Please model this.
Amino acid sequence: MDDTEVLVVGAGPAGLALACALRLHGIAVQVVDSASGPASTSRANILHARGVEVLDRLGALGDLPERALSAITITQHLDGRPAITIRFGDVGLGDARPALYISQADIEAELRRRLAELGVDVRWDTPLADLVQDADGVTALLGDERVPLRCRWLAGCDGSHSTVRKLAGIGFPGVRLTEGFLLADVHADWPVDRAGGHGWPHRDGPFFALPMREEGGADDLWRLMAYDPAGADGVQGDEEIVERFRRLVPERTGRADIRIKDAVWTSAFRIHRRLADTYRRGRIFLAGDAAHIHSPLGGQGMVTGMGDAENLRNRVLVPVANLPAVQRRAGQLASQLWATYRRGPLGGGGVARRRPRPGDRVADLICLRPTAAPPACTPNWAAAGRCSLRAGTRTRA
Model:
């Protein structure tokens, strides 16, 4: 293999996005992955607003908004009735982009498409066997034949069991939590609104149903998720997990009008919470699950907050959760548009009160050309009447 400026180990969302961003800055990149080819299962199935922005900036959004279901709402049901509806979209942070219900496999495919446009293809079936770093770079030994590849920088984006992290000697402290969860993507007949997701708090644990879209398929694909320590311990295969869900649906939701036909993908797992000792060792960096893992249930605290509230009396929970301010706050937390790097090494520090500060996200602005004509916005967002500022464009607000 030819030497390169940056070697990215891992062709998941983090690794692919990093490789695209580097290529957009003219940096030579190679991407390797130990898998034999791209994953076809959905795994994550929601892309929040910040993720949509990242893909858009990388030119990797493609037609995902057209193929996805817009995650406009998530409704919590109490006593068998819809009680709390959280709305996504413009959550007061200068962005009109809704979250998208879309398979992680589809997101990765768009990132690979964009990376190929930028001149890089993923090298599959190429595991990292070893690495040696010095003051000038890193020598990676790849595959069973330990073929050497020299790079100036190496990025470990190879997941929670990261080989890069282990070879670099970076600790991954944390705890294995006792919670067990079941996941299944199923075809089901179920007269529930597919405009958004649904949740049912229950004394034995929450139950969630999220609509999914399948290329060329009927509108009957659902992601089911249930807290179920006993079931997660006792089931092994797809059929056992599906049968467990057939029992859990009426128990947790109080509804008997669902008919699960078959499963596309299933999983039983336990949650770990871990954080790498450092994100960098010399010329080696970690990103994504290689650096941090936590609960997959949304990841921004919104679902956890609702779970904390499930024991409150309905007369307190429902009026408070339906307050506009609470609705906006829940949407803001989920969107990740609030994230800032102002305290990082490039943020500049200081206590200046002006906004935005170095490291903050710059909200979308309505821009005009020097002729006062509206710009040619990205088609996906033209209906929103907004246009993201891009480096090198000459526009005025």
